[in-house]
Amino acid sequence: MAFHDVRFPTRVSLGARGGPERRTEIVVLGSGHEERNSRWADSKRRYNAGYGVKTLDDLHIVIAFFEERRGRLHGFRWKDWTDHRSCAPSETPSALDQAIGVGDGATAAFQLRKTYGSTFAPWTRTIQLPVAGSVLVAVDGMPQDSENFLVSLISGVVTFLPEHVPPAEAPVTAGFQFDVPVRFDTDQLEIDLSEIEAGSIPQIPIVEVRL
Questions:
Q1: Enclosing H/E stretch for 12
Q2: Would you state the pLDDT for residue 196?
Q3: What is the CB-side half-sphere exposure of residue 93 using CA atoms within 13 A?
Q4: Is the Cβ–Cβ distance between 210 and 156 less than 8 Å?
Q5: What confidence tier does 200 reach under pLDDT thresholds 50, 70, 90?
Q6: pLDDT value at position 176?
Q7: Dihedral angle of Cα 88, 92, 93, 98, to the nearest 10 degrees
Q8: Do residues 136 and 95 touch, judged by C-beta distance below 8 A?
Q9: Separation of alpha carbons 48 and 207, rounded Å
Q10: Taking Cα atoms as reference points, which of 206, 208, 169, 171 lies closest to residue 71?
């Protein structure tokens, strides 16, 4: 599947509904106890963008975006307004927000990550599609100049230049904004123009993809 490095219209995604989904198998034993097994190591996000369509202009924008993506064929960026930063949505990202590795004096590349939870079973999410210009990095608590490293805006890998490779045992942390890689989960938009002034698209399913 091809990926188009373009973001779904944010004024529409702001009104969308959705969030993370997991796949758990549950077997109920004769005793009434349960055996539970997680089929997915990582969650997958689903959204319905239809709730964000408020005007005919919104309809026009979504239709154009859908046609350019050829329906389900090409992926794109999606801004999840509830979870698009290394910190809480109302806070400003800091270079100390998320641990992304520990230096060994040789390793130059570190994957952006975000950890959820802290006590019982924290889950670490691989972050792809960071927002350009938003990535802040610190080594051993010291913020790094943006000229000291490169960031892939697709893979989310931070690569330090040779003269700035983190030394042994130095914690590497980062703060950032990011998008979710998604695609349309339909090849048809069913448009309702029952109200002349403002049409609606009851269902615009969006699903996260793996790059």
A1: helix 10-13
A2: 43
A3: 22
A4: no
A5: low
A6: 98
A7: -40
A8: yes
A9: 9
A10: 206
Report DSSP letters for 50-79, one per residue.
GGG--SHHHHHHHHHHHHHHTTTTSEEEE-
**Taking Cα atoms as reference points, which of 61, 54, 73 lies closest to residue 8?**
61
Q: Checking phi first, is residue 114 left (phi over 0); if not, alpha (psi -120 to 50) or beta?
A: beta
User: Using an 8 Å Cβ cutoff, are 4 and 69 in contact?
Assistant: yes
Report the alpha-carbon distance of residue 204 to residue 58 in Å, rounded: 13
* Angstrom distances, CA of residue 117 to CA of 43, 46, 186: 14, 21, 33
Residue whose entry in the numeric block shows the structure tokens 């979504």:
62
Torsional sign, CA 49, 51, 52, 53 = positive
**What does the alpha-carbon distance between residue 104 and residue 171 come to, in Å, rounded to a whole number?**
10
Instruction: Name the token pair of 167.
Output: 């030394």
